[in-house]
Write a structure and sequence with these properties.
The complex is a heterotrimer of chains A (about 375), B (about 260) and C (about 350). With about 375 residues, chain A is α+β, with helices and mostly antiparallel strands. Chain A has twelve helices and ten strands. The longest helix of chain A is centred in the middle third of the chain and has 37 residues. The mean pLDDT of chain A is about 90. Chain B starts with a strand and ends with a helix. Classes of the chains: A alpha+beta (about 375), B alpha/beta (about 260), C alpha/beta (about 350). At the B-C interface, α3, α4, β7, β9 and β12 of B face α3, α4, β7, β9 and β10 of C.
Amino acid sequence: MQFKLTMEQELIQKRARDFAQMEIEPIAAQVDRERKMPPDMAEKLVKAGFVGMLIPKKYGGSEAGMLSYILVMEQLSYPVCSCLTAMSNNVVGRVIAQFGTEEQKERYLGPLCDGKVIGSYGFTEPSTGSDPKSLVTTAHLLGDSWIINGIKRFHTFGHLDGPAIIFANVDGEKTTAFIIDKNVEGYTSSRPFELIVGGGLETVDTRFDDLRVPKSNLFGELGGGFYILLAIAAEGRLGLSIASVALAQAALDESIKYAKQRTRRGVPIASMQAIQWLLAEMAFRIEPARWSTYRIAWLVDQGQEVLKESAMVKLFASRVATEVASMGMQVHGSYGLTKDFKIERIYRQAKMFELAEGSNEVQRSIVAGHLLA
Amino acid sequence: MHIIVCIKQVPVKGEVPIDPRTGILKREGVPGVINQEDLCALEEALLLKEKHGGGVTALSMGPPQAEGALREALAMGVDKAVLLCDRAFAGSDTLATSYVLAQAIRKLGWFDLVLCGKQSSDGNTAQVGPELAEHLVLPQITSVQRLEIYRGRVEAERALESSLQWVESRLPAVITVTKHINKPRQVSVEAILVACREKEVITWKADDLGVDISRVGLMGSSTRMVATWLPEPRKRMGEILTGPTREVVRTLLERLREREVI
Amino acid sequence: MSSESNVKVSPEGRGRVWIFAEYSDGELARVSLELLWKGRELAGALNSQVWAILLGCGVTALAEELIYGGADRVLLADAPILADYDTSVYSQVVTQEALKHKPDILLIGATDIGRDLAPRIAARIGTGLTADCVAVDVQRETGLLLQTKRGYSGNMMFTFVCPEHRPQTATVRPGVLQVYPRDTSRQGEVIPVLISPSEEHTRVRILKEAKRPGQGSSLEEARVVVACGRGIGGLENFHRLEEMAESLGAAIAVTKELVDAGWISEGHMVGQTGKTVKPELYIACGLSGAIQHTSGMWDSGIIVAINKDPKAEIFRIADYGIEGDLEEVIPALIEEIGRTSP
């Protein structure tokens, strides 16, 4: 077992680190404050080659692999600035490559690699969290089209141009996935919710009123939607886990910097045991979260299915994020409450990881389900 | 035109551990990056290639992990990458290093120009470039921040302490560049993947180069590190003057006049 | 063309120290005098002499100055081909003389020329070289030159020796050593060196040279230095600081940020990657005391620090400190200096 990144992975990681330092770090506070996405970020991410990493070469991607993708996401998430919209094309693109028809791959993957459109998926509804049986969105076949009716809630990037993978129930309980091109009659989206996380994380309600979708946009098998959802979720969780790790690392680094500079009675607070212990508590949580995520990404690259593992690491890493962010605030004291320090933004963003991509309660059920099967 | 660029992998930042037995810096296992000024040398070579055609070879002497630096050079666009790696080379000072590099360059065959960064961020000697030029019996131009090639000759702008100097010489020549010469390009993930999965890094050992073993490594080095320590912080009896600005300033000037410095 | 055989020092040559002399605008560079000062100390400890080697055209008067500055003997190579510095011609001449006279130690200033020439000579002769030393000393028993330099952003000191190869060569940072007062009563020999330069194909031709803009008196020679970093604030504050410096007859020193901002040329940068200065008085305005800067002014006679942060590191190395806002203190200083000046 090689616990070492390959040269290729190290170079990719370094590239991402440089990118984060040069392109994201300088604007992070501003994006958070003004809640406005930098307009050219997608283009820059594409140019650096980050957007096609999980998409096969045949369709314009680079097939860099899941571990390399995770390494990139870790670096890009470190400035704690939600401006990585185009990166979601990786997860959506990979799923389309796995389950789509040849025609669907040809149609959607190229534009996703170019960052010209943004891929998204919508499962959650106002009254449905994670139970597919209670999906209210329905689809029925009428001639050559599927007619879809329903609402999706917290459909991240549902309002942006690009393919959306939507889950609907056919004939009652057959959960099925469809790819929807958004510029069609019957598709509407609300304004983005105002979330405590700032900037570019835009999530909306989308609504389908007798939305007509061609037969060829059936995605995967009839009734096979849940399986696709699991695939999206398993890999989406990895991205979220590593973003949690990056955020926690940022909290630790900020706290170390602060502790060394801030003095009380002529000495830096870093010389005080209470602070030292807090820093140690932060660090020992981050280390296993990181390496566990790396390992699971590596398993994906080996072709293994990671439903249980990714749920476990998401549970763990998201909790690490909130705990470490909270400890970071303790180190900063009241100054942590001010906008002058990065820790306030870190603290605000941390909680999201326990709730998104299937709340931690859901994750617990998944894990238990595997254990007791 | 054919350009050879000598690059060095240096520690990312901070201190490099020293092996207490030999007194030499332990490079293995410490994460490395291409020395900043060598990166500029690579970039300059690639720019010259784009303008004049030809090829670029990246050359580095280092431990096995220095291959990463050469892979990065391949990702940037160099045509050939050669790693000089042998236990026998470990512990080389600049004299031994420049000797090994010169042997490798001779083995590579015809070239028009050798570029290197002026100095490395770890050694800071700025010696390898000129020593290399001496071994190869070539003109040297150091501290270059701009250069132009015209028909077998090179014109260079040198940044000196208090002046700018323009010089010219015939090619081939050895030129060391400063970080003011250009801004190195960033590589894409695709380029990294191609460089790592499809391209070759040629490795040469001492035997391949036909070097005189007594002139390489620790044995071939003329200098030896005998001590290393942290500098003592200077102890001064600081008198901090407090009070209204006007008074404080007057007191300071009084003190300084008493001590006859103004 | 590096020599296979090293310079083998004969018993009479043991301890003989050479310094490479530099000059500009008809005057010896201060670093050459600093090297002579140190050279005398080293040679004295080894019961030997210090020689200077001087290359140029029409520089006979400088040879005398080298004697007045402490040299026992001056090797003078005076010829039109040496009028401008050229790496290959200069290294050829110095090497030729070194092989002839076999010095034990060779000191060169870590100047543009010095750092360009020294490695060429070292490779030509086949000897060891330590660059940019901040201290050189000698071990009496062994005759080994202890060559000390700073590394890793000034956070560590390293000492090297060159056990077998000769001459033991080092370039020394200008400003870290002292000088002897000019003594016209000193006696010494000036020996002309005959040269027959070859190697046209490694010559580099100088097309033109232009002085870079610099302000005020030369930094290394200044008795008083006023320094600032980013903490100075805006350009108007900087100009006021320049005003204050002028009224004190002081030179300006800055940190890297201000050079990068284009406010002043790199020749005014003090610190680990800049210059080292040892003025009698160093006034640090709005500087925190980070080691990257302080390693360049450490040894100043008297250090005054002005900073609004009472916890700034600089106060720990200052003789006098004012905790205050530069915007208030600088104008007050200008006024007070003006008021009480003769």
